[in-house]
Amino acid sequence: ESPEVVVVRELYEAINARDVAKLHRLLKPHLEWRFHGPPKHQHLKRLLTGEEETIAFKFEPQEVAAFGSTVVAEGCGLGALWVHAWTVEPEGVITQVREYFNTSLTVARVGADSPASSSDDHDRSTHCLPVWQSRLHRRARKSLPGLVLAI
């Protein structure tokens, strides 16, 4: 496992154990946060900010994958499917989280190393390369909106 994946797995252990000291070591004090989903599912925010200390929701990722400094984790619980995209600095500190609830997510890599959409040099443009797609769990009995996260 990459060092970034190890950091994210340690983070989930600290969250579920409510280990505040470890969370302070792993998270940047001014964590950049983006949430996509119903407000009632902001369990992570309520736990990390101390707004609520006793939440039945457990974050137990079923899949974790790294794409450079971005680590994607996916899980489900209490009728919700979730995906987190964490940004981990080389020093092992998490600086950003993008949180998605009850949606499917495709992660795509965009950049100069992407193949061109045209062989004509003066009309070249890059396009997305899918590198990861969330799996709908057997608990998902309905269609979910899909999002694309470009990294």
Q: Can you describe what's shown?
A:
This is Wound-induced protein 1. InterPro entries: NTF2-like_dom_sf, Wun1-like. The protein is an alpha/beta fold. It contains 3 helices and 8 strands; from the N terminus they run H-H-E-H-E-E-E-E-E-E-E. The protein has helices at 3-17, 20-26, 43-48, and strands spanning 27-36, 63-67, 70-77, 80-88, 94-101, 104-109, 129-133, 146-150. The strands form 2 sheets. The protein has a 5-stranded mixed β-sheet. It has a 3-stranded mixed β-sheet with strand order 7-6-8, with no helix packed on it. A hairpin with a 5-residue loop joins strand 4 and strand 5 (94-101). Helix 1 (3-17) runs antiparallel to helix 2. The two termini are 20 Å apart.
Name a few traits of the molecule.
single chain, 151 residues, alpha/beta, five-stranded mixed sheet, three-stranded mixed sheet, 3 helices, Wound-induced protein 1
Regarding quaternary structure, how should these chains be classified? single chain
Structure annotation, total helices:
3
N-to-C span: 20 Å
Beta strand count = 8
Shape: globular
**Helical content band:** 10-25%
Structural class estimated from helices and strands = alpha/beta
Estimate the mean pLDDT confidence.
Answer: 79
The major pleated sheet works out as: 5 strands, mixed
What portion of residues belong to β-strands?
A: 35-45%
The strands making up the biggest β-sheet line up spatially as 1-5-4-3-2
The radius of gyration computed from the alpha-carbon positions, rounded to a whole number of angstroms, is 17 Å
Low-confidence sequence ranges: 114-125
Q: Report the order of strands and helices.
A: HHEHEEEEEEE
